Structure formats: structure tokens, C-alpha cells
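Issue: ligand-bound run for 4'-deoxy-4'-aminopyridoxal-5'-phosphate - logging full I/O for the record.

Environment: standard queue, default settings, no custom constraints.

Inputs:
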Amino acid sequence: MTRAYNFSAGPAALPEAVLREAQAELLEWGDARASVMEVSHRGAAFEALVADAEADLRRLLAIPDDYAVLFLQGGATQQFALIPMNIAAPGQAADFVVTGHWSAKALAEAGTYVDARIAADAGAPYVALPPRAGWRLSDDAAYVHICQNETIQGVEFQEAPADLPAPLVSDFSSTLLSRPLDVSRYGLIYAGAQKNVGPAGLTLVIVRRDLLERAGQPRARILSYAEQAAQRSMLNTPATFPIYLAARVFKWLEREGGLAAMGERNRRKAQALYAAIDGSGGFYRNPVDPAVRSWMNVPFAIHEERLHAVFLEESDAAGLLALKGHKAVGGLRASIYNAMPEAGVAALIDFMHDFQERHG
Ligand code: PMP
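Outputs:
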């Protein structure tokens, strides 16, 4: 058996170069005479690693100085709750734009803490974004929440929506680091790491410092962004190994040319795959409005439902893993994050052509 092209939506493929580096120093990390998993998070070596990781992330994303970077745990799902707890008063309004599965989840979870209002809802089957002009935004909202890239439906905001009366909060779980980004357009950006950043267990929060001064809601210190920022995300033991791997991913991204180069590569990958789907004469279909198609998650279906199972079996045997669509949508999905090389997308497209010839 060999390592295959992995199209999993998350936990997703990691850059092979990064896995090899981790393998090479798994038993002895630097001068530690122990693995990175076996040393104190308060030791000088690990503190230097975190400082370096933060500096690299700041450089990659050109994060302005008035933003704090937090390395947390609990996944994006925990942020659905921590965001209202930290930056909204109890029962204050917050506006949500619903564009698919994950933005709907964020809305539902926030309802425990805030008056969660639907500013716009694209409506099922969530294949387009609601036009900005039609959003009903509140005057008194603590923030406006969007999901930058809906991992399941494959719908992506190509840029930050403009002219908002409150700070923009965005779930970047499945698109952070996929292309350059103007952080200053957002009040808060968050992402579970396990798609485009590193392994599961690490959650990134990039938050404008003025939002840390908001009183928020009664909460334990461990749930406070301001406390975490003051303690450099070390209120308690952080996810040391995921942070180490993410730090390696940041170095890899810099070696690959940074986010501009990565964005061009991702654009080419997505364009090639959508062109293959659109050019299949209806054998394969992607239902999403071409203007908002995700560069990272490409859901598609075969015109005949029964062929999905055959496709999955044959593609897996051909070394193309995890192409099953999410159960909420069905069909197929190819997640093509940074770690998916162009050759992997080309191999998938070749397979799709071949499959169509045999079953079309
Ligand atoms: N938001 C988005 C956009 C996601 O894709 C996911 C995970 N698939 C989540 C939130 C939930 O993330 P977690 O499992 O890290 O809580």
C-alpha cells in the first residue's frame, strides 16, 4: 500500500514534506533529547516555537499589529459559543448570514447567549450567496457573522462583504491560508486547523484587540479571549503537537511562495476541476453559482444516483481517497486544500474522464 491522494474534507491531507519533517524528528526534537510532545510547554524551546509560529502566521496573512492571534482548542464549534460570550453582552443582538450547514450551526449555538438574528438566508439547497443589498442588518448588533467557505455546500465568499454596521466575524475553517486575505476587513477570524492549517486539536482565532476590551458575558477565565491573549494562549497546556505541526505548515507555505503563490495554485486546481465537471455533458454536475464556487471544497454528483457507490469504490481502488459527499448533500465531494498537489487534481480529472467513458 502507498500513500494516496486524499480528498478528505477534514481532518484532511497534510503536506507530505511536513509529515516527513515530523517523522524525522519524532523521537528527538532539536536539542531536546525528547520528542516535541514530551517537553514542557513553558520551556524556552517550546515558547520559542510558538513565538516563531505566530510571527510566521502574521507574515503569511499580513496580520496588522492591532490583532491578537490565539492558539486555542475546542474546534470551530466551540468558537460558535465563545464568540458571543466574549464580544456580546447577554441577550444583545448579533446578525447571522446563513449560507449553508456551518453558518446555520453558528446561528443555533449563539442563540444561548445573544439575540441571534437572521440577516439573510440563502435558503436550501444553498447553492448561491444572498446578495449583500438584501441583508437586514441591526443597528444594535454586537457583530455580523458569516461562514467564509461552506465546507459541505461548497459556497465561498470571494471577499469580505462591505459596509457593515458591526464588526465582521467569519468562520474560515475550510479556507484560511488558501489565498491572500485582507484581515483588516474582519473583527474576528476563526478556524479549526484540521483542513488547511494542521491536524485536529488546534483552533486559530485572529481578533482585533479593541474587541477584547468588550465586557462580554460571565465566563470562566479559560473561555476568555482577553485572558488567553494576555497569557499568549498558555492559560493551560495548549495542543503542543498540533501547534508544532501547524508551525511546520507555515514554514512550508513560505517555502512554496506564500499565499499569493498558493492562491494561484488553488485557483488553477479549482478551475481545472470545475471545467471537467461542467464539460462532462451533464454526466457530472456541480449546482453552485459559478461566481461563488469554493476553491477548496467541490461537491458534485453523477446524473445517475446508483453510480456514486461505484465511483467511490473504483476511485478508492485507484488511490483517490475520501470522495464521498457529506450526508446532508449526498453525491461526491473533492476537498482540494493547500496540501493537495496539482498532480492530485489532474489524477482525479483523469479518473473522472475514464469513469465516464466506462459508465456514460
Ligand atoms: N465550520 C466549518 C466551516 C467547518 O467545515 C467545520 C468542520 N467541518 C466546523 C465549523 C466545525 O469544526 P470543528 O469540528 O473543528 O468544531
